[in-house]
Structure formats: structure tokens, C-alpha cells
Amino acid sequence: MAHVNVFDTTLRDGEQSAGVNLNRLEKIEIAKQLERLGVDIMEAGFPASSQEDFEAVKEIANTVRNCSVTALARSYKSDIDTAWEALKGGAEPRLHIFLATSPIHMTHKLKKTPDEVIETAVESVAYAKEKFPFVQWSAEDATRSDYDFLVHIIEKVIEAGADVINLPDTVGYATPVEYGKLFNYVREHVKNIDQVTLSAHCHDDLGMAVSNSLSAIEAGAGQIEGTINGIGERAGNAALEEISVALEIRKDHYDFHTGLVLKEIKRTSDLVSKLTGMQIPGNKAVVGRNAFAHESGIHQDGVLKEATTYEIITPNMVGIDSNNLVLGKHSGRHAFKQKAESLGFQLTDSKLKEAFLSFKDLTGKKKEVTDGDLFAILTDKQTENEDVAKYELKAFQVQYGSINRPTATILLTRPDGKEVEKASTGEGSVEAIYNTLDELLDEEVHLQDYQLSSIGKGRDALAEVYVQLTVNEVTTSGRGSAQDVLEASAHAFLNAVNRTLQSNEQPVNKVQA
Ligand code: KIV
Ligand code: ZN
To answer: Where does the Pyruvate carboxyltransferase domain lie (predicted)?
Structure first.
């Protein structure tokens, strides 16, 4: 069986999803989990796009040791230099440069002739190769490019030193047969193609990203690119968990495998969903809530008699473990620490102590504290920046009645340590809380989006709220979990505001790739 490299771009193309806005600590947490998942290459960001992205890429490159860390650059020397500064401490520094090759992009976006595009591509690859041991070159919008032009430019960038050639279906336009043909065409016509690995990068605008990636593998791609949960620009990228499980389950058909540790899929998917706020649809293949649920009586009967009647993937294979050890109110600090480690968390002593207190608090309110609850508590603690002063909710009260206008009273500690209190009303309880917080904060805040979900099942399940705000014109997001929906709502709002204070976030110049 041939090995196919997995190139994960959750932290770059995935982070380009509308509304997604990860901070440095969250990116590092995802990077560590991607390393555990066993990706071969992770694209950590686009360092030239903002100081924050630069810092995050640098820290990831310096932290991750078991896979190659790469970053995106436009075909500018300054982008390449910035990427080198961010990546040079990595285990295997690698650069990803792109330039559009389709007539639409060359004419309207780049405003360059095909010859100028070739010259720019060759120059940038040669320049990158002076610094980086590995250089990947992407022909943006390859699937809408002229095949013979592609052959010509690919030959030239290979001569200039490229190690990997990526043929992105940037706008998700190709069909599986066409995409496979493109790979075959390039393999048959580019005379120095044996010197490089071919890579597939598919977007899901027509819902064909995974099928297209599988088709590329069959046509000679030695690397597939994608994201966890398929997040990404517009309709997203190819979902890596779907591709890797498809190769495993259908190994009778595909003679290829990835090195992914399939048991890490569930945790990776949960972490990415939680930190990005992009909920996983219940019917999503491999990781959706219903992917292993059998609803009809006939199916249930069949599965009870023999699981393979209706189940082609076992939940266990992707890390869904129904025999979780549940912690309760008698569990001590040691058991809690062990559990946290078994869930993949390595917290500092002070964070572990605080997480333990939150856990103890929850055991007083909830019969069983599940892995989902612990995952929420531990992730929140792990990604919290302790070093910066912030707004903190001290106490709040909401008066609600079907014939009264809801009123919220909130006591808050400000970043300067002062306590302030106010009451205000709204059409609903959440609005009353948000109006009151507005009055208590110095920042100018506008709510853009609000999502509510529950962690696990049952009446006493934790509520999780995800909000998107603009704070002083900077778009940001926040999350909060609590047993009470209103408390979770208040925490999410303050979390978003605190994030902008902690990061001095500037509007991020995300590349539209
Ligand atoms: O979709 C795309 O073309 C990209 C490139 C930057 C590789 O993401
Ligand atoms: Zn892309």
C-alpha cells in the first residue's frame, strides 16, 4: 500500500472560514492535537498577513516536532522572508507559495500576462529555495487553467527547485473524473514531474471535495490537503477525516493509506469545532452526532443482531468511546489530573488547579460529569490567557416574566480591578444581559452572531454559547459554557471582549485564496 501524505490546512484555509477567528493559544492547542493525529505537514498560517499570525506560526513551528510545519506566502520576497523568520526554528521548515494560473485570475486579479506569471513564479520559487529545504508551489485555480500552460509553468518551477506541486481546485469547480484527468495529464506531459510530489487541494462548493481528492489519489497525487471537519473558505475544504476513513474502510478498493491515527479523529474534530465555533452538522460523515445513531426499528434490530448489517465504520475506530470513566463528586485531584491527561491535556499546575475547582463546582450541580463536560472545562482553561487583565463577571441576576420587560443586574470587575454594577432591560433575557454589559464596558460592542448548543444530553447538560462580536470595529468571537443558558451567554460575550484586549487584535488581512 502506498503512503499518501496528509497536509492539514485547518489553521490557514480553515481559519479563513467566515467568522472564524482563533487566537494564538487556541491555534497552538489545535496544532498540538494535529500532531497527535499524525498529519505529515501542517499549514500553520500566513505570517505576512498580520503580526498575530506571524507570532502564532512561529510558536507552532517551535513547538511541534513530529511533523513539518509550513506557512503560506504570496510570490513576494517580503512574504517569503517573513515566512522564513516564522518557520526557521521548525523541525522541517517548508514554504507554500502560490500564484494563480487561470486566465480569469491572471487577467482580472493579477493583471499579468502568462509570461509574466511564469517569470514571477520561477523567481519566487528560486528565492524561497535559497532559504527553505522544502518548497511547495501551488497553481491557484489550476482546474480552470489551460492544461498546456500548466504543464509549461510547472516544468519551470520544478527547474527552479520546487519539491511539491499542488493543483488546487480553488473554487470547487471540478468533477472527480476531470480532476483525476488533470493529474494524469500533468504526470504524462511534465517531463521533470518525477522530481516532485503532486498534491491535491479541493474546495467543496459543489459538494465534491472529498470525491475529488480520492480521485486525485488514484491518479497519482502523493499528498492530499484538507481541513478537520471540512472547514474553510466558502463551502469549505475537503474533510481530512472523511478521506482517511474512506481509504481505511475501502482498502479493498484504494491501495493507499494515510498515517493518521484514526482514534484521534473524534477529539480533533471536537476541539476544532469548539474553538472555531463551527458546529458539526448531526449528519456529517464520520464525526456527526448521528453518524452512528440507528433510528429505525429495522436498523436497530439489525445492529443488535450483527453490527455490520448497518454499520460500516465502528465508533471505536474514530475514537468514540462509549465506556468512558465518569468522574463524580467524590473524585479527587489525582483522578481529575489522570483523566485530564487521558483526554490529552497537559495543563500548568495553576490552570489544573482552577480547572479542578470548576469541576468540583459542577459536581455540586450535575449528577454525572461526562467527558464532554471535562473537555469543555479543560479546553477553556487551557486556552485562557492568564497574564492579561480582563473583565470578569462577579454576579448577575435576571428578572423575567411573561408580562414584564426582562431586567438584568450585573456586577462586574473591570480590567483595572474596580467593581461596577448596573441594571438594564431588553426584549428578552439575553438582550437585557447584553444591554447591561454594553453599559458597563468602555468598548463599543456590536453582536453579529449568537449560537447556543448543549454539551451532551439530559436536562442538566451544560449550555455552550458562541458569539461573534465587533469590539471597537475588530471582529472577534467568544465562547462560554455554564449550566445556565444566561450565564453561558454572559461569559461568551465577555470572553469575546477580553480576547480583543488580550491580543490587541487588528483587523486581519486574510488572503482570499
Ligand atoms: O484554494 C486555493 O487555491 C488555496 C491556495 C492558496 C493553495 O488555498
Ligand atoms: Zn484553498
So the answer is: 4-266
